[in-house]
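Researcher: Next sequence.
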Amino acid sequence: MKLLLFQLEDYMLPCVNKTLFGFECMGCGMQRSVNLLIQGEFLAAFFMYPGIYPLILLLATIGINIFKKIKYFNKIITILAVVTVITIIVSFIIKTLIN
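Model: Next structure:
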């Protein structure tokens, strides 16, 4: 398992926005957060990228709906999408203000 995790870190893409302009984008930290989730570091994954959990919930709901139709799916997806976007934007603003 550890061997797999080290190999994942070798293939992480650098942030083009940070490379070109010098500041992080709204997606910075997502790859590292997923890597931390795989390692079982759930709290560290949240602090790395707070939008990871609402995003996982959103994607899981979409995936479940493919196999078993969910009642009020459109309303649920809309709410989850709004929560995810708000979480990502707020965490980006806080991260930008702190740095």
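Model: The chain has one domain: 2-98. Residues 2-98 form one domain.
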